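Subject: for your reference before the review

Hello V.,

The reviewers asked for a structural picture of the protein, and I figured it would be easier to keep everything in one thread rather than splitting it across files. Below is the amino acid sequence we used in the manuscript, unchanged from the supplementary table.
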Amino acid sequence: MKKILLAFIFAVLVAGCDYNRLANGIPIVTVIFNSAPSSTDRPTQIPDEDRKIIISGSPSIEKVVHATLEEFTGQNSRLDFIYKPKGSSTCVLDAHKATAQMGAVSRELKPDEVELGLEKTLIGYDAIAVVVNNENRVDNISTEQLKEIYTGEIINWSEVGGPDEDIIVFLREYGSGTRGTFERILGVEYEVSYDEINKLISSDLRIYEGSGSVQGQVYYHPYSVAYVSAYYPLHDNYIKSLDINGYALNYENVQRQSYPLVSPVYFIYHKDKLTQTAVNYINFVISAEGQQIVEHKGLIPIEHDKNK
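And here is what came back from the structure prediction:
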């Protein structure tokens, strides 16, 4: 069996929230924001039953939700929000069963999920850049070739038009939102336990934290390949982003979904289960102000101002 070198990148993101753990092991993040608008702009009193929004959402977009909630609550009276980070399939069921007012998912709904009658609102796109060292003459790769690299079928750059050099593959840790999107799109999945990871790391592999460290490793290993969140600024002086299937990673190709490593991000819900506050929050996220926050926190906005 062909071997590939896997370097596991561990990134721990601390959101500054209180984490509690249910009996079933799922973390619950409770976010309560207090604001004190001036008497001249204080909104109409909100009924008690409309003061709380419960969102079941993908961990990969948790930062976006927290940031937009913080700004939204700063413009309203005291509101309580509960964000439950879960997998997208669980989020769909939570929204359908109304155990959460809405779900936040980073993929299209599956056919059986569509049959549930949920409505959806597009809030942005989650895109991934595949990066290599600038010394590598490869500029474009197909999704099939990329999949074969990450499954060990392709182990040398010469197989994809590059130099006769072994490919060093950098892989994010299991549970990473970026990794989840990458593997879901390519149909690649590594079910590796932490014990197995530790055994691998105890030999030649090292732990690196964050997209910056990943880029640093691509710099130090000219014949390596890695993937990072598209919003993370690339150090263009020593690494580059590959075109995929002939499409460059840019706003236009992401929004058209011509660039293949992209997933739409939706709020999903049954409209009759939403409170007016929840409706107002969704409208805020897709507003010009909300989309600026969405972009700042790592997603590609629904529409991009080319004059920015």
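For the response letter, the relevant points are probably these. The chain is about 30% helix and 25% strand. Residues 148 and 189 are 12 Å apart (CA to CA).

Happy to draft the paragraph if you're swamped.

O.
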